[in-house]
Design brief:
Blueprint (H helix, E strand, L loop, with lengths): L3 E5 L6 E6 L3 H20 L2 H17 L1 H12 L3 H22 L6 E2 L4 E9 L2 E5 L5 H14 L3 E5 L6 H13 L6 E3 L4 H10 L5 E5 L2 H12 L4 E5 L5 E4 L5 H13 L11 E5 L3 H13 L19 H10 L6 E3 L13 E3 L7 H4 L6 E7 L2 H8 L7 E5 L3 H10 L4 E4 L18 E2 L12 E9 L3
Parallel strand pairs: 5-6, 5-8, 6-7, 8-9, 10-11, 10-15, 11-14, 13-14, 15-16
Antiparallel strand pairs: 1-2, 3-4, 4-18, 9-17, 12-13
Helix pairs in contact: 2-4, 2-6, 3-4, 4-5, 9-10
The structure holds nicotinamide-adenine-dinucleotide.
Nicotinamide-adenine-dinucleotide binds next to helix 7 and helix 8.
Length: 454
Protein backbone atom coordinates (compact mmCIF):
# COMPACT_ATOMS: atom_id res chain seq x y z
CA UNK A 1 0.00 0.00 0.00
CA UNK A 2 1.22 3.55 -0.74
CA UNK A 3 1.75 5.52 2.50
CA UNK A 4 2.58 8.87 0.93
CA UNK A 5 2.30 10.69 -2.38
CA UNK A 6 5.11 12.60 -4.01
CA UNK A 7 3.93 15.89 -5.51
CA UNK A 8 6.11 16.98 -8.45
CA UNK A 9 6.25 20.36 -10.18
CA UNK A 10 5.11 19.39 -13.70
CA UNK A 11 7.14 22.20 -15.30
CA UNK A 12 10.46 21.15 -13.71
CA UNK A 13 9.90 17.61 -12.35
CA UNK A 14 11.25 18.85 -8.98
CA UNK A 15 9.79 17.40 -5.78
CA UNK A 16 7.42 19.92 -4.18
CA UNK A 17 6.13 17.90 -1.19
CA UNK A 18 5.36 14.45 0.10
CA UNK A 19 1.88 14.04 1.50
CA UNK A 20 0.75 11.20 3.79
CA UNK A 21 -1.98 8.98 2.33
CA UNK A 22 -5.22 8.41 4.26
CA UNK A 23 -5.76 4.74 5.18
CA UNK A 24 -9.14 3.02 5.22
CA UNK A 25 -9.11 3.14 9.05
CA UNK A 26 -8.42 6.90 8.90
CA UNK A 27 -11.39 7.30 6.56
CA UNK A 28 -13.59 5.56 9.13
CA UNK A 29 -12.45 7.99 11.82
CA UNK A 30 -12.95 10.95 9.50
CA UNK A 31 -16.52 9.86 8.74
CA UNK A 32 -17.41 9.51 12.45
CA UNK A 33 -16.02 12.99 13.18
CA UNK A 34 -17.67 14.50 10.11
CA UNK A 35 -21.06 13.05 11.08
CA UNK A 36 -20.80 14.68 14.54
CA UNK A 37 -19.72 18.01 13.03
CA UNK A 38 -22.59 17.85 10.53
CA UNK A 39 -25.15 17.61 13.31
CA UNK A 40 -23.73 20.76 14.95
CA UNK A 41 -23.61 22.53 11.59
CA UNK A 42 -27.16 21.65 10.56
CA UNK A 43 -28.46 22.83 13.95
CA UNK A 44 -27.03 26.36 13.46
CA UNK A 45 -29.38 29.13 12.40
CA UNK A 46 -29.29 29.46 8.59
CA UNK A 47 -28.03 33.06 8.88
CA UNK A 48 -25.08 31.87 10.99
CA UNK A 49 -24.15 29.13 8.52
CA UNK A 50 -24.32 31.67 5.72
CA UNK A 51 -22.15 34.10 7.69
CA UNK A 52 -19.48 31.45 8.30
CA UNK A 53 -19.40 30.50 4.62
CA UNK A 54 -19.04 34.18 3.68
CA UNK A 55 -16.16 34.49 6.14
CA UNK A 56 -14.59 31.40 4.51
CA UNK A 57 -14.93 33.22 1.14
CA UNK A 58 -13.28 36.36 2.53
CA UNK A 59 -10.31 34.37 3.85
CA UNK A 60 -9.93 32.51 0.54
CA UNK A 61 -9.80 35.91 -1.13
CA UNK A 62 -7.12 37.09 1.31
CA UNK A 63 -5.05 33.95 0.57
CA UNK A 64 -5.81 33.94 -3.16
CA UNK A 65 -2.33 34.84 -4.40
CA UNK A 66 -0.68 32.22 -2.18
CA UNK A 67 -3.19 29.57 -3.32
CA UNK A 68 -2.62 30.54 -6.94
CA UNK A 69 1.16 30.28 -6.65
CA UNK A 70 0.80 26.86 -5.02
CA UNK A 71 -1.42 25.72 -7.90
CA UNK A 72 1.19 26.89 -10.41
CA UNK A 73 3.74 24.77 -8.56
CA UNK A 74 1.77 21.57 -8.00
CA UNK A 75 -0.35 21.50 -11.19
CA UNK A 76 1.65 23.56 -13.72
CA UNK A 77 -1.31 25.89 -14.26
CA UNK A 78 -0.55 29.27 -15.73
CA UNK A 79 -0.54 32.05 -13.15
CA UNK A 80 -3.51 33.76 -14.82
CA UNK A 81 -5.57 30.57 -14.68
CA UNK A 82 -4.54 29.78 -11.10
CA UNK A 83 -5.59 33.26 -9.96
CA UNK A 84 -8.95 32.76 -11.65
CA UNK A 85 -9.30 29.36 -9.94
CA UNK A 86 -8.68 30.74 -6.43
CA UNK A 87 -11.16 33.56 -7.13
CA UNK A 88 -13.65 30.97 -8.38
CA UNK A 89 -13.52 29.19 -5.00
CA UNK A 90 -14.26 32.51 -3.29
CA UNK A 91 -17.20 33.15 -5.63
CA UNK A 92 -18.58 29.63 -5.25
CA UNK A 93 -18.59 30.01 -1.46
CA UNK A 94 -20.28 33.40 -1.67
CA UNK A 95 -22.89 32.15 -4.13
CA UNK A 96 -23.62 29.06 -2.01
CA UNK A 97 -23.82 31.20 1.15
CA UNK A 98 -26.57 33.20 -0.57
CA UNK A 99 -28.59 30.00 -0.91
CA UNK A 100 -28.56 28.95 2.74
CA UNK A 101 -31.42 31.25 3.73
CA UNK A 102 -33.32 30.59 0.50
CA UNK A 103 -33.41 26.79 0.71
CA UNK A 104 -37.16 26.73 0.96
CA UNK A 105 -39.54 23.81 0.70
CA UNK A 106 -43.08 24.04 -0.70
CA UNK A 107 -46.64 24.01 0.49
CA UNK A 108 -48.66 21.70 -1.74
CA UNK A 109 -52.48 21.99 -1.94
CA UNK A 110 -54.08 18.73 -0.73
CA UNK A 111 -57.51 17.84 0.68
CA UNK A 112 -57.91 17.21 4.40
CA UNK A 113 -54.89 19.06 5.66
CA UNK A 114 -51.68 20.93 4.94
CA UNK A 115 -48.77 19.45 3.01
CA UNK A 116 -45.21 20.72 3.37
CA UNK A 117 -41.90 19.74 1.86
CA UNK A 118 -38.55 20.17 3.61
CA UNK A 119 -35.12 20.02 1.98
CA UNK A 120 -33.09 18.06 4.52
CA UNK A 121 -29.29 17.73 4.37
CA UNK A 122 -27.96 14.34 3.31
CA UNK A 123 -25.34 14.06 6.07
CA UNK A 124 -21.72 13.34 5.07
CA UNK A 125 -20.87 13.92 1.41
CA UNK A 126 -17.74 12.53 -0.29
CA UNK A 127 -16.22 14.64 -3.07
CA UNK A 128 -13.64 12.84 -5.23
CA UNK A 129 -11.75 15.43 -7.27
CA UNK A 130 -9.42 15.23 -10.29
CA UNK A 131 -6.08 16.92 -10.88
CA UNK A 132 -7.08 19.12 -13.79
CA UNK A 133 -8.89 21.80 -11.71
CA UNK A 134 -8.08 20.84 -8.10
CA UNK A 135 -9.56 23.91 -6.38
CA UNK A 136 -12.64 24.77 -8.48
CA UNK A 137 -13.88 21.19 -8.83
CA UNK A 138 -13.47 20.63 -5.09
CA UNK A 139 -15.50 23.78 -4.41
CA UNK A 140 -18.21 22.95 -6.99
CA UNK A 141 -19.10 20.05 -4.72
CA UNK A 142 -18.06 21.31 -1.30
CA UNK A 143 -19.58 24.82 -1.33
CA UNK A 144 -23.22 23.88 -2.08
CA UNK A 145 -22.96 20.70 0.01
CA UNK A 146 -21.85 22.70 3.05
CA UNK A 147 -24.43 25.40 2.38
CA UNK A 148 -27.19 22.78 2.35
CA UNK A 149 -26.12 21.65 5.83
CA UNK A 150 -23.82 18.72 5.04
CA UNK A 151 -20.29 17.79 6.09
CA UNK A 152 -17.76 17.23 3.28
CA UNK A 153 -14.90 14.75 2.98
CA UNK A 154 -12.78 15.67 -0.01
CA UNK A 155 -10.43 13.20 -1.70
CA UNK A 156 -8.08 15.19 -3.95
CA UNK A 157 -6.16 13.57 -6.83
CA UNK A 158 -2.85 11.96 -5.87
CA UNK A 159 -0.88 14.50 -7.90
CA UNK A 160 -2.58 17.66 -6.59
CA UNK A 161 -3.51 17.59 -2.88
CA UNK A 162 -1.77 20.78 -1.75
CA UNK A 163 -4.20 23.61 -2.52
CA UNK A 164 -7.23 21.76 -1.15
CA UNK A 165 -5.31 20.96 2.07
CA UNK A 166 -4.81 24.73 2.37
CA UNK A 167 -8.54 25.31 1.81
CA UNK A 168 -9.35 22.98 4.72
CA UNK A 169 -7.04 25.02 6.98
CA UNK A 170 -8.65 28.25 5.82
CA UNK A 171 -12.12 26.81 6.59
CA UNK A 172 -11.04 26.20 10.18
CA UNK A 173 -9.61 29.72 10.47
CA UNK A 174 -12.95 31.04 9.20
CA UNK A 175 -14.70 29.35 12.11
CA UNK A 176 -16.36 26.38 10.41
CA UNK A 177 -16.76 23.55 12.96
CA UNK A 178 -13.76 21.24 13.26
CA UNK A 179 -14.02 18.12 11.03
CA UNK A 180 -16.89 19.62 8.98
CA UNK A 181 -14.68 19.97 5.89
CA UNK A 182 -11.81 17.49 5.84
CA UNK A 183 -9.36 16.81 3.02
CA UNK A 184 -8.24 13.17 2.79
CA UNK A 185 -5.33 12.72 0.36
CA UNK A 186 -4.71 9.19 -0.82
CA UNK A 187 -4.94 6.66 -3.62
CA UNK A 188 -8.19 6.46 -5.56
CA UNK A 189 -8.64 2.72 -5.10
CA UNK A 190 -7.96 2.96 -1.33
CA UNK A 191 -9.09 6.31 0.11
CA UNK A 192 -11.55 7.10 -2.69
CA UNK A 193 -12.97 3.60 -2.67
CA UNK A 194 -13.38 3.69 1.14
CA UNK A 195 -15.59 6.79 0.77
CA UNK A 196 -17.64 5.13 -1.97
CA UNK A 197 -18.24 2.00 0.13
CA UNK A 198 -18.71 3.65 3.53
CA UNK A 199 -22.28 3.18 4.83
CA UNK A 200 -22.33 6.62 6.48
CA UNK A 201 -21.27 8.59 3.40
CA UNK A 202 -24.61 9.56 1.90
CA UNK A 203 -23.50 10.90 -1.49
CA UNK A 204 -20.49 10.83 -3.79
CA UNK A 205 -19.64 13.64 -6.20
CA UNK A 206 -17.03 12.40 -8.64
CA UNK A 207 -15.18 14.24 -11.40
CA UNK A 208 -12.70 12.31 -13.50
CA UNK A 209 -12.46 9.59 -16.10
CA UNK A 210 -15.45 7.62 -17.38
CA UNK A 211 -13.62 4.38 -16.52
CA UNK A 212 -13.40 5.24 -12.80
CA UNK A 213 -16.82 6.93 -12.84
CA UNK A 214 -18.48 3.68 -13.95
CA UNK A 215 -16.69 1.80 -11.19
CA UNK A 216 -17.85 4.33 -8.61
CA UNK A 217 -21.41 4.10 -9.93
CA UNK A 218 -21.31 0.33 -9.41
CA UNK A 219 -19.92 0.83 -5.87
CA UNK A 220 -22.69 3.32 -5.04
CA UNK A 221 -25.36 0.95 -6.41
CA UNK A 222 -24.72 -1.43 -3.54
CA UNK A 223 -26.25 1.06 -1.08
CA UNK A 224 -28.31 3.10 -3.54
CA UNK A 225 -25.94 5.89 -2.62
CA UNK A 226 -26.64 9.30 -4.18
CA UNK A 227 -24.19 10.13 -6.94
CA UNK A 228 -23.20 12.97 -9.25
CA UNK A 229 -20.75 12.19 -12.04
CA UNK A 230 -18.82 14.73 -14.11
CA UNK A 231 -16.89 12.67 -16.64
CA UNK A 232 -15.01 13.37 -19.83
CA UNK A 233 -15.81 15.30 -22.97
CA UNK A 234 -14.94 15.42 -26.65
CA UNK A 235 -16.62 18.67 -27.40
CA UNK A 236 -17.32 19.97 -30.92
CA UNK A 237 -16.61 23.50 -32.10
CA UNK A 238 -18.94 23.87 -35.10
CA UNK A 239 -18.08 26.65 -37.55
CA UNK A 240 -20.65 27.47 -40.23
CA UNK A 241 -19.74 29.33 -43.42
CA UNK A 242 -22.02 32.23 -42.39
CA UNK A 243 -20.02 32.83 -39.18
CA UNK A 244 -17.39 35.46 -38.48
CA UNK A 245 -14.77 32.93 -39.62
CA UNK A 246 -11.86 35.07 -38.49
CA UNK A 247 -13.24 35.31 -34.93
CA UNK A 248 -13.97 31.57 -34.93
CA UNK A 249 -10.44 30.71 -36.10
CA UNK A 250 -8.57 33.07 -33.79
CA UNK A 251 -10.54 31.97 -30.72
CA UNK A 252 -10.31 28.24 -31.52
CA UNK A 253 -6.76 27.63 -30.16
CA UNK A 254 -7.42 28.61 -26.53
CA UNK A 255 -10.72 26.71 -26.59
CA UNK A 256 -8.69 23.49 -26.50
CA UNK A 257 -5.24 24.68 -25.30
CA UNK A 258 -6.34 26.29 -22.06
CA UNK A 259 -4.94 24.25 -19.14
CA UNK A 260 -2.86 22.38 -21.77
CA UNK A 261 -6.07 20.75 -23.00
CA UNK A 262 -6.66 19.08 -19.64
CA UNK A 263 -10.19 20.40 -19.55
CA UNK A 264 -13.28 18.25 -19.87
CA UNK A 265 -14.94 21.03 -21.93
CA UNK A 266 -12.00 21.46 -24.36
CA UNK A 267 -13.29 22.00 -27.91
CA UNK A 268 -11.10 19.29 -29.44
CA UNK A 269 -13.22 18.49 -32.50
CA UNK A 270 -13.27 21.51 -34.77
CA UNK A 271 -15.99 20.95 -37.39
CA UNK A 272 -15.82 23.42 -40.26
CA UNK A 273 -18.26 23.84 -43.15
CA UNK A 274 -16.49 22.69 -46.32
CA UNK A 275 -16.83 26.00 -48.21
CA UNK A 276 -14.73 27.87 -45.60
CA UNK A 277 -12.50 24.94 -44.52
CA UNK A 278 -9.32 26.15 -46.31
CA UNK A 279 -9.73 29.76 -45.20
CA UNK A 280 -10.34 28.62 -41.60
CA UNK A 281 -7.10 26.58 -41.61
CA UNK A 282 -5.14 29.54 -43.07
CA UNK A 283 -6.36 31.70 -40.19
CA UNK A 284 -5.96 28.96 -37.58
CA UNK A 285 -2.29 28.16 -38.27
CA UNK A 286 -0.82 31.51 -37.13
CA UNK A 287 -3.22 31.63 -34.18
CA UNK A 288 -1.95 28.23 -32.97
CA UNK A 289 1.74 29.10 -33.46
CA UNK A 290 1.39 32.37 -31.57
CA UNK A 291 0.20 30.70 -28.35
CA UNK A 292 2.89 31.29 -25.70
CA UNK A 293 3.91 27.94 -24.17
CA UNK A 294 6.38 27.87 -21.29
CA UNK A 295 7.06 28.72 -17.67
CA UNK A 296 3.59 28.77 -16.06
CA UNK A 297 4.68 31.31 -13.43
CA UNK A 298 5.38 33.90 -16.17
CA UNK A 299 2.31 36.13 -16.52
CA UNK A 300 2.61 36.13 -20.35
CA UNK A 301 2.40 32.34 -20.60
CA UNK A 302 -0.84 30.98 -22.09
CA UNK A 303 -0.12 27.25 -21.85
CA UNK A 304 1.94 25.23 -19.39
CA UNK A 305 2.94 21.56 -19.14
CA UNK A 306 0.84 18.43 -18.76
CA UNK A 307 0.31 17.18 -15.23
CA UNK A 308 2.55 14.09 -15.26
CA UNK A 309 4.75 11.76 -17.28
CA UNK A 310 1.88 9.24 -17.44
CA UNK A 311 -0.38 11.91 -18.98
CA UNK A 312 2.36 12.93 -21.44
CA UNK A 313 2.73 9.30 -22.56
CA UNK A 314 -1.04 8.96 -22.90
CA UNK A 315 -1.25 12.09 -25.09
CA UNK A 316 1.72 10.97 -27.25
CA UNK A 317 -0.10 7.66 -27.82
CA UNK A 318 -2.99 9.48 -29.57
CA UNK A 319 -0.88 11.42 -32.09
CA UNK A 320 0.48 9.34 -34.96
CA UNK A 321 4.12 10.04 -35.93
CA UNK A 322 4.27 12.44 -38.92
CA UNK A 323 0.49 13.11 -38.98
CA UNK A 324 -0.61 16.12 -41.10
CA UNK A 325 -1.48 19.26 -39.20
CA UNK A 326 -0.39 22.40 -37.39
CA UNK A 327 2.09 22.32 -34.51
CA UNK A 328 3.09 25.00 -32.04
CA UNK A 329 6.22 24.92 -29.93
CA UNK A 330 6.99 23.66 -26.43
CA UNK A 331 10.07 23.90 -24.20
CA UNK A 332 12.66 21.14 -24.32
CA UNK A 333 14.30 19.71 -21.20
CA UNK A 334 12.65 18.74 -17.91
CA UNK A 335 8.89 19.00 -17.49
CA UNK A 336 5.94 17.26 -19.12
CA UNK A 337 5.63 19.32 -22.29
CA UNK A 338 3.59 18.66 -25.42
CA UNK A 339 3.20 21.27 -28.19
CA UNK A 340 -0.16 22.65 -29.35
CA UNK A 341 -1.26 20.26 -32.09
CA UNK A 342 -4.08 20.40 -34.64
CA UNK A 343 -4.49 17.32 -36.84
CA UNK A 344 -6.01 17.56 -40.33
CA UNK A 345 -6.90 14.61 -42.54
CA UNK A 346 -7.95 12.47 -39.54
CA UNK A 347 -10.67 9.85 -40.03
CA UNK A 348 -13.79 10.94 -38.07
CA UNK A 349 -13.81 7.58 -36.24
CA UNK A 350 -10.09 7.58 -35.30
CA UNK A 351 -9.47 7.40 -31.51
CA UNK A 352 -7.97 10.92 -31.54
CA UNK A 353 -11.25 12.19 -33.07
CA UNK A 354 -13.63 10.37 -30.71
CA UNK A 355 -11.85 9.76 -27.38
CA UNK A 356 -10.88 12.27 -24.72
CA UNK A 357 -7.14 12.96 -25.13
CA UNK A 358 -6.82 15.44 -22.26
CA UNK A 359 -3.90 17.19 -23.86
CA UNK A 360 -3.32 20.10 -26.30
CA UNK A 361 -4.57 18.16 -29.33
CA UNK A 362 -7.53 18.89 -31.63
CA UNK A 363 -8.72 17.56 -34.97
CA UNK A 364 -10.33 19.56 -37.76
CA UNK A 365 -13.03 17.83 -39.81
CA UNK A 366 -15.10 19.26 -42.71
CA UNK A 367 -18.91 19.00 -42.91
CA UNK A 368 -21.44 19.76 -45.65
CA UNK A 369 -24.63 21.09 -44.07
CA UNK A 370 -26.48 21.53 -40.78
CA UNK A 371 -27.61 17.89 -40.53
CA UNK A 372 -24.10 16.68 -41.27
CA UNK A 373 -22.68 19.01 -38.59
CA UNK A 374 -25.07 17.72 -35.91
CA UNK A 375 -24.43 14.09 -36.93
CA UNK A 376 -20.65 14.59 -36.64
CA UNK A 377 -20.99 16.53 -33.39
CA UNK A 378 -22.93 13.64 -31.85
CA UNK A 379 -20.62 10.90 -33.17
CA UNK A 380 -19.03 10.27 -29.77
CA UNK A 381 -20.08 8.71 -26.48
CA UNK A 382 -19.46 12.03 -24.75
CA UNK A 383 -21.86 14.96 -24.54
CA UNK A 384 -20.48 17.61 -22.22
CA UNK A 385 -20.07 20.89 -24.13
CA UNK A 386 -19.91 22.46 -27.58
CA UNK A 387 -19.72 25.72 -29.49
CA UNK A 388 -21.67 26.91 -32.51
CA UNK A 389 -20.35 29.72 -34.71
CA UNK A 390 -22.93 31.31 -37.02
CA UNK A 391 -24.56 34.70 -37.65
CA UNK A 392 -27.95 33.07 -38.21
CA UNK A 393 -29.90 33.23 -34.92
CA UNK A 394 -32.32 30.50 -35.96
CA UNK A 395 -29.48 28.15 -36.88
CA UNK A 396 -27.65 28.93 -33.63
CA UNK A 397 -30.68 27.85 -31.63
CA UNK A 398 -31.58 24.87 -33.85
CA UNK A 399 -28.09 23.42 -33.66
CA UNK A 400 -27.66 24.19 -29.95
CA UNK A 401 -30.94 22.37 -29.24
CA UNK A 402 -30.07 19.44 -31.53
CA UNK A 403 -26.57 18.62 -30.26
CA UNK A 404 -26.78 16.09 -27.42
CA UNK A 405 -24.57 17.85 -24.89
CA UNK A 406 -25.16 19.65 -21.61
CA UNK A 407 -23.43 22.99 -22.21
CA UNK A 408 -23.55 24.82 -25.53
CA UNK A 409 -22.22 28.27 -26.34
CA UNK A 410 -22.90 30.38 -29.41
CA UNK A 411 -20.12 32.52 -30.90
CA UNK A 412 -18.10 31.93 -27.74
CA UNK A 413 -16.52 29.06 -25.85
CA UNK A 414 -17.63 29.64 -22.32
CA UNK A 415 -19.03 26.62 -20.54
CA UNK A 416 -18.57 26.66 -16.79
CA UNK A 417 -20.15 29.52 -14.90
CA UNK A 418 -21.09 29.10 -11.28
CA UNK A 419 -24.47 30.77 -11.90
CA UNK A 420 -25.57 28.18 -14.48
CA UNK A 421 -26.14 24.41 -14.41
CA UNK A 422 -23.25 22.28 -15.62
CA UNK A 423 -23.12 18.59 -16.53
CA UNK A 424 -23.12 16.05 -19.30
CA UNK A 425 -25.36 14.00 -21.58
CA UNK A 426 -24.54 10.39 -22.43
CA UNK A 427 -21.30 9.12 -20.87
CA UNK A 428 -20.18 12.62 -19.88
CA UNK A 429 -22.00 12.39 -16.59
CA UNK A 430 -25.00 12.10 -14.38
CA UNK A 431 -26.78 14.96 -12.65
CA UNK A 432 -25.92 18.65 -12.73
CA UNK A 433 -23.69 20.87 -10.61
CA UNK A 434 -23.60 24.64 -10.10
CA UNK A 435 -26.39 27.06 -10.94
CA UNK A 436 -29.48 28.01 -8.95
CA UNK A 437 -30.31 24.37 -8.06
CA UNK A 438 -26.84 23.42 -6.79
CA UNK A 439 -27.86 23.19 -3.12
CA UNK A 440 -30.91 21.03 -3.85
CA UNK A 441 -28.62 18.29 -5.19
CA UNK A 442 -27.30 17.92 -1.62
CA UNK A 443 -30.69 17.44 0.03
CA UNK A 444 -33.45 14.88 0.37
CA UNK A 445 -36.97 16.15 -0.14
CA UNK A 446 -39.12 15.21 2.81
CA UNK A 447 -42.89 15.46 2.56
CA UNK A 448 -44.97 16.07 5.71
CA UNK A 449 -48.76 15.97 5.74
CA UNK A 450 -50.64 17.53 8.67
CA UNK A 451 -54.23 16.42 8.93
CA UNK A 452 -56.68 19.20 9.88
CA UNK A 453 -59.88 17.15 10.04
CA UNK A 454 -59.29 15.24 13.28
P1 LIG B 1 -9.17 9.24 -12.59
O1 LIG B 1 -10.58 9.12 -12.99
O2 LIG B 1 -8.39 7.99 -12.34
O3 LIG B 1 -9.04 10.09 -11.21
C1 LIG B 1 -9.97 11.02 -10.73
C2 LIG B 1 -10.10 10.89 -9.21
O4 LIG B 1 -10.66 9.61 -8.88
C3 LIG B 1 -8.77 10.94 -8.44
O5 LIG B 1 -8.95 11.62 -7.21
C4 LIG B 1 -8.47 9.48 -8.19
O6 LIG B 1 -7.63 9.26 -7.08
C5 LIG B 1 -9.86 8.93 -7.92
N1 LIG B 1 -10.02 7.48 -8.12
C6 LIG B 1 -9.33 6.68 -8.97
N2 LIG B 1 -9.75 5.41 -8.83
C7 LIG B 1 -10.72 5.39 -7.89
C8 LIG B 1 -11.55 4.38 -7.33
N3 LIG B 1 -11.45 3.10 -7.69
N4 LIG B 1 -12.45 4.72 -6.38
C9 LIG B 1 -12.57 6.00 -5.99
N5 LIG B 1 -11.82 7.00 -6.48
C10 LIG B 1 -10.91 6.71 -7.44
O7 LIG B 1 -8.45 10.13 -13.63
P2 LIG B 1 -6.90 10.09 -14.03
O8 LIG B 1 -6.36 8.68 -14.11
O9 LIG B 1 -6.20 10.99 -13.11
O10 LIG B 1 -6.94 10.66 -15.50
C11 LIG B 1 -7.17 9.75 -16.58
C12 LIG B 1 -8.04 10.36 -17.65
O11 LIG B 1 -9.29 10.74 -17.07
C13 LIG B 1 -7.54 11.65 -18.25
O12 LIG B 1 -6.63 11.45 -19.24
C14 LIG B 1 -8.81 12.27 -18.75
O13 LIG B 1 -9.17 11.76 -20.00
C15 LIG B 1 -9.83 11.85 -17.73
N6 LIG B 1 -10.07 12.90 -16.71
C16 LIG B 1 -11.19 13.64 -16.85
C17 LIG B 1 -11.44 14.65 -15.96
C18 LIG B 1 -12.65 15.50 -16.08
O14 LIG B 1 -12.68 16.62 -15.58
N7 LIG B 1 -13.71 15.01 -16.68
C19 LIG B 1 -10.56 14.92 -14.91
C20 LIG B 1 -9.43 14.11 -14.76
C21 LIG B 1 -9.21 13.12 -15.68
Amino acid sequence: MIHEHRVLNPATEELVATVPATSVADVDTAVIRAAAAQRTWAALAPADRARLLRRFAVLVDEHAERLALLEVTEAGHTLGNARWEAANVRDLLDYAAGGVERLTGRQVPVPGGVDLTFLEPLGVVGVIAPWNFPMPVAAWGAAPALAAGNAVLLKPAETTPLTTLQLARIALDAGLPEHLFQVLPGAGDVTGDALVRHPDVAKIVFTGSARVGKRIMAGCADRVKRLTLELGGKSPNIVFADADVEAAATSAPMSFLDNAGQDCCARTRILVQRSVYDRFLELLAPAVSSVVVGDPSDERTQMGPLISRAQLERVCGFVPEGADGIRGSAPAGPGFWFPPTVLTGTAPDAPVATEEVFGPVAVVLPFDDEDDAVRLADATEHGLAGSVWTRDVGRALRVSRAVRAGNLSVNSHSAVRYWTPFGGYKQSGLGRELGPDALAAFTETKNVFIGTEA
